[in-house]
Each structure stands twice: as C-alpha cells, then as structure tokens.
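Propose amino acids for all 500 sites.
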C-alpha cells in the first residue's frame, strides 16, 4: 500500500513532466539542505540561483512556477531569505505586477485593432528584411516611451493572432470555427511544412521585436524600471538622462538594427525564414473576409479601440499614472464601449499574465536569497576598487553578466546604491559618479539580452502561450539572441571606454 501511494505521489509530482526532469528537481530539493550544512549559504545560494535558471530553461517541459516555486520555498525554509525580504522585493516591484495584471489584459481588448493593422502590414510588405526592421525599430521606438512589457504584450497578441488564423485554415477549419491551435493533429502535408516555416518566420519576428525593446528601453528615463531608479538617484531629468546615456545607447541602437538586417540577409542563427505563399494567401483571404463582413458595429468597435490606443499612448507618454492603472483604464473603456460586460469574457483577458505574475513573485524570492546572502558582494567590491576607464568598463561588464542571470532591476539597485554611497563618502567626483551611473544603466540593459531571465519582457515571451506554439524555448532564445548579445555587448563596452 505504501509503495502504491509513493508511486501515485511520484506520478502526481509535476504532472506530465518527463521522469528525468522530475528526478532532477527532487535531487535539487534533497541536495540543497545537505550542501547548506556542508558548504554554507554562499555556495548553496549560487547553486539555488542556477537551479532556478534550469527551471526557466526547461519552460517547455514544465511551466517554471511549480518547480521554481518549490526551490524558492525551500530557500526560505532553509533560512536563506526571510518572508519579509521577499515581501519587500515584491512591493518594490509592485508597479511591474500591476502592469502585468492590467496592461496585458488591456492589450487583449485591443487585439481586433492590432490584428487589423498588422495583417495589412504583413500582406502589403513582402520583404522579410524590411518587415524584420519594421518590427525591431517599432519595438525600440515604443519601448523608449512605453514599457517593454507592454510592447512585448502587443507583439505577442499580434503573432498569436496570425498563428491562430493560419492554423485554423491549415487544419481544415473556417475563420470563425472554434479551434484548438495548440494541436497539429489535423494539419497534413503540404500544410505541415508550411506551418513549420511559418513558425520559424514568427520566431524571427518575435526575437527581433523583443530585442528591439531592449534597444529602445536603454535610451530614456522611462524605458525600463531600473532606468527610473538610476535616474532618480543621479538626479537626472528626462532630457539629461537621454543625453548622458546617448554616447552608449545610440551606437548600440545602430549596431542592433544593422545586426537585424544582416541576420535576415544571411539567414544565420535561425533567422531569415520567408513567409510561405500559402500563409500569405490565407492572410489575404482573411483580410478580404474581414473587409466584406465589416459592418457599422464592427467599424465602431475599431474606432473605440483606436481611441483607447491613442489614450494609452498619451497616458503612458505623459506618465499620468502608473502603467498598470492606465491599463485598467483601457480595460474599462474598451469593454464598456464595446459591450464586453460578461464576467467570463473578461476573465479570458487575464489568463496570459497571471501565471507569469506568480512566477515573477517566485523569482523575487530567489532575488531575496541573492540579497540576504550577498552573492554579488565579491564582484561589487572588486569592481568599485578599480579606477578610471577600467572601473567604467568592469562595472558595465559586471552589471551585464549579473543581469543576465538575475533581475536587472535588482542588479541596478545594488550597483547604483554602492556607487552613490562611494560618492557620498567622497571617494568619487561628481563627473565620475555620473559616468558610473551610465555604466550601471547600460550594463543592466544591454548585455542582459543574453538570456530570457535577463529581462522581464524576455521572460514574459518565454513563458507566454505563444512560445510553445512557435517552438521558442529557452535554448533557442539564447541561441537566437547570441549574435545580438555579442554585437551589442562589444559596441556598448567600446562606447563606454572611448565615448564616455
């Protein structure tokens, strides 16, 4: 009986995840307390961080919330972080949580307009290279004034819409049929080959766009959460922030766009997939069908969504309120004026973001371990002991490397606090302090594109419902980001050493 119950428990543990994955997580959970007793909290803390990264890397095998959450809970139970620290890390990022809950849901109610606009773009622009540049530059421009997560949510909504439309037709369904586009059972040759090519095409667009959010996000005070933190500590306004960061951010932006064009032209690292003719034909038919069916009520819905989108851009650009609260306002406007008053229809809008919100809080528990165990302290002390250009370069590299494995907001907070303390102690001149602040900002934004856990927007894409549909896992994201990581990182480092 005991053996039967043990077998049942093992089967229930992490559900349908592969057996080797279950054994890995169980081994991690058993190893951590033993290592804590034998080697101490510093070594165990670093192992816990690597284990959590492993759960992110295996996101297509098992959603990271459950295994990552178990590791985070064990870290707290072992005394490596207190619940109070986790709560403090969470409340410090409450604006990001609000954004995920309400802004992503708000974008859901604008999807009809977004699909209308981008379908026309997809049909009219036949050059894959031009389309990639449009997605990359648009994401960069919007991220400079909006939030990278918001822009990523928009692009995910658009790509999901494209995929759903074609998958229905490839499965022999009609545009209006209810269809599960996560299953390929009804897709047969030659549609199956076209579907795989379409997935590759969408992967390229998504990666260009999400890296575009990093290219634009580094440039302004409001582009990323840590930018606002660093700018506040340094006392920079919007214009001063842009000008001080520009010697690094502008060359990186130019090189990023050049990298985008070269990758599409050369077809390296999984880029360069061409939109299949059958997919373009389906999109043209979909557009024609939508145009033929468009009546006064549908036009009014589009007008309402257009007005809501304009209010969103204005509200975010002027920062009239926290991003999440603006998202809630968009939900109210877009649903009230378009007749979406059913509670069940409202609930669907929150399905995408809430699991990721929970995962992000679990991630804050790992950040709390990093904070309480001072895992970054040796690196921080070494970097700040350097002088001049070498100090700028090492701070850029160190903040970049740590941001790629941790939370860039946390890394930015640690480093700008240390730099400010050194300035207040008279160890730094005012000009050197400003240069170091630029290094922290660019370091936490640019090299962190190397991994999905480096930036919230990347992690959001990895754990979205779209990622498994287009076969975009952790390893593939790292591989596709690699050329960008190298070109952007080296450009940023050279600009830090020469132009600052």
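Proposal:
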């Amino acid at each position: 009986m005991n053996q039967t119950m043990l077998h049942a428990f093992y089967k229930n543990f992490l559900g349908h995840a592969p057996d080797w994955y279950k054994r890995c997580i169980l081994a991690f959970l058993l190893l951590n307390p033993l290592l804590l007793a034998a080697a101490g909290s510093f070594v165990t803390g670093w192992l816990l961080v690597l284990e959590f990264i492993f759960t992110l890397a295996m996101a297509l095998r098992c959603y990271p919330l459950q295994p990552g959450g178990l590791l985070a809970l064990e870290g707290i139970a072992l005394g490596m972080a207190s619940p109070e620290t986790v709560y403090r890390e969470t409340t410090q990022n409450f604006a990001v949580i609000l954004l995920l809950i309400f802004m992503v849901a708000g974008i859901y109610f604008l999807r009809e307009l977004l699909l209308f606009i981008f379908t026309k773009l997809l049909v009219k622009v036949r050059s894959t290279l031009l389309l990639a540049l449009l997605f990359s530059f648009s994401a960069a421009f919007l991220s400079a004034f909006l939030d990278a997560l918001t822009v990523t949510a928009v692009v995910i909504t658009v790509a999901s819409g494209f995929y759903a439309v074609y998958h229905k037709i490839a499965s022999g369904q009609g545009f209006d049929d209810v269809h599960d586009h996560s299953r390929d059972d009804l897709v047969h040759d030659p549609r199956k080959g076209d579907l795989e090519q379409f997935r590759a095409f969408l992967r390229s667009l998504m990666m260009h766009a999400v890296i575009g959010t990093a290219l634009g996000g580094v440039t302004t005070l409001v582009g990323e959460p840590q930018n606002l933190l660093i700018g506040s500590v340094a006392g920079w306004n919007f214009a001063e922030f842009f000008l001080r960061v520009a010697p690094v951010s502008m060359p990186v932006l130019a090189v990023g766009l050049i990298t985008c064009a070269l990758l599409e032209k050369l077809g390296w690292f999984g880029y360069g997939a061409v939109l299949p003719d059958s997919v373009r034909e389906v999109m043209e038919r979909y557009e024609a069908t939508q145009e033929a069916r468009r009546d006064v009520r549908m036009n009014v819905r589009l007008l309402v969504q257009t007005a809501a989108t304009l209010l969103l851009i204005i509200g975010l650009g002027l920062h009239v309120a926290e991003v999440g609260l603006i998202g809630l306002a968009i939900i109210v406007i877009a649903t009230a004026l378009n007749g979406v008053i059913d509670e069940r229809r409202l609930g669907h809008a929150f399905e995408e973001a809430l699991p990721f919100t929970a995962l992000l809080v679990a991630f804050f528990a790992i950040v709390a371990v990093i904070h309480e165990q001072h895992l970054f302290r040796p690196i921080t002390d070494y970097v700040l002991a350097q002088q001049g250009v070498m100090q700028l370069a090492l701070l850029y590299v160190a903040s970049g490397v740590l941001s790629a494995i941790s939370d860039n907001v946390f890394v930015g907070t640690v480093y700008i606090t240390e730099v400010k303390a050194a300035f207040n102690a008279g160890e730094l001149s005012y000009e050197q302090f400003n240069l170091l602040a630029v290094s922290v900002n660019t370091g936490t934004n640019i090299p962190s594109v190397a991994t999905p856990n480096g930036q919230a927007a990347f992690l959001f894409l990895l754990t979205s419902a779209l990622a498994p549909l287009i076969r975009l896992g952790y390893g593939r994201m790292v591989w596709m980001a690699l050329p960008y990581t190298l070109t952007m990182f080296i450009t940023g480092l050279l600009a830090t050493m020469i132009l600052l």
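The radius of gyration is 23 Å. The chain has a mean pLDDT of 86.
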